[in-house]
Amino acid sequence: TVGSYRIVAKAFDNQNEFSFSDTITVHVITNLPPTVNITAPANGVTLLASSHTIIKAIANDGDGYINRVEFYNGTLLLGADSTSPYLYTWNNLLLGTHAIIAKAYDNKSAFRFSDTVKIKVVANALPMVTITKPLDGNAFIAPATIYIKANAGDTDGSIKKVNFYAGTTLLQTDSISPY
Q1: For residue 93, what pLDDT band results from cuts at 50, 70 and 90?
Q2: Considering only CA atoms, which of 87, 94, 45 is closest in space to residue 70?
Q3: What does the chain look like in DSSP terms, one character per residue?
């Protein structure tokens, strides 16, 4: 059981004479649980719905080794990894606030939970685009070459391209600002 013990050996010969060994002290300790910390994603990060994130954890055990690290969204087990670096790719994130927790087990079944990392998953905001030239209602004499200029932005990402149309006919695509 847990505690400190003094141990001595006593040897007897064929004449029933004896002697003692030096006394040694041994300690029986409780298995210490491992440590575990989530290193990614960062606490409080905002991610887009239907995207993915990689959950990363660091786990250590001072008196043994790590058997596995489990990854949870609240109480829902997402997955586990038994090799360092401990990772889980969480695909198709759903809208809402999520509480990510890692649980590390050592080789003697002791375990510990990480601190909770909260992430927020939001819907993708639509990009904004405004034609700045020509102005609405401008008149041109035929045959005319009309230069079209637009400003575009995205609050939660970046602009990939801007398409210019005359009705439903695609005129040109520009992927470099200013458009």
Answers
A1: very high
A2: 87
A3: --EEEEE--EEE-TTS-EEEPPPEEEEE-PPPPPEEEEEESPTT-EEETT--EEEEEEEE-TTS-EEEEEEEETTEEEEEE-SSSEEEEE-SPPSEEEEEEEEEEETTS-EEEPPPEEEEEEPPPPPEEEEEESPTT---PSS-----EEEEE-TTS----EEEEETTEEEEEE-SS--
Length of the chain: 179
Pair 36, 112: CB distance under 8 Å: yes
| CA dist., res. 153 & res. 179, Å (int) | 11
Report the candidate in 5, 25, 110, 132 with the shortest Cα–Cα distance to residue 59. 110
Model pLDDT for residues 105-133, shown as the tens digit of each residue: 999 999 999 999 999 999 888 999 999 99
